[in-house]
Every structure is written in C-alpha cells, then in structure tokens.
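@channel sequence for tomorrow's demo:
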Amino acid sequence: MISFNYETDFQLHQEDLYENWIADVIDSEGKTQGEINYIFCDDEYLLQKNIEFLNHDTLTDIISFDYTMGNLISGDIFISVERVQENAKEYNVNFEEELRRVMAHGVLHYCGYKDKNENDSLLMRNKEDEKMLLFHVKQ
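structure tokens (generated this afternoon):
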C-alpha cells in the first residue's frame, strides 16, 4: 500500500497516478511493494525529524526510514515541500519534476541504491532519470 500524508498545506494532485507510478518503480526493480508512506511537510517539521532521529541540524529535502525486509519494500519517506521548491529553482527544473525525482530517490534507497560516494551518486541519478520516465508513460 502506498499512502500520502500531509503535515503542510501542500496537496499532491492525482494521488492515484503517483501511487501507480511508485508501484511501477518498485516492480521495475524486481521488488515487491509493501507499505510506503509519503509524508509531505515543511522545512521546520523535517528539520526536527533530522535532529531527533539522525542528529543532523541541517535542512534537507528528504529523510527516509527503511523498513524493507528482503524484497518487500516498505518505509516512511518524509519530504520537505519547501526544500523541493528551492531545489527546483536552483536546478532550473519545474517543481513537479523535482518532486518526482525526490519521491523516486526515497524508494530507490529501499531498493538498495546508495549515494554516499561519487560512483553511487551517479548510479542513483541515472536510476532516478530512468524511473521518472515511467511516470510520463502514465500521463
């Protein structure tokens, strides 16, 4: 089950489209969909999570808590809508594209992809690009 939760005024349009897309992302990696919870929030909310759970006093666009067991993909993905908006401006892309990239990024972590070094980051970016194309097929 994929669910969308809101701790801010933001509301994802066409939730069913995003739900089907995330399911396709998981399936395309040969994994099984478990319970994925997206929590959309603001910077302050996510900063508190970052301090409380990761001991990081910095703003971030995403924090994911991975509950994956084997090939059953599960977890909670917290996304700061404010950070996504700022990053979209910085990278000169529209908000929806940057949001999809971040949403895919969280699930790709659960599928085993990392981004702590340059090679892993490059593979992660390529996987994000690949998975974002799956969304366009759905439109």
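heads up for whoever presents: The first strand starts at residue 2 and ends at 6.
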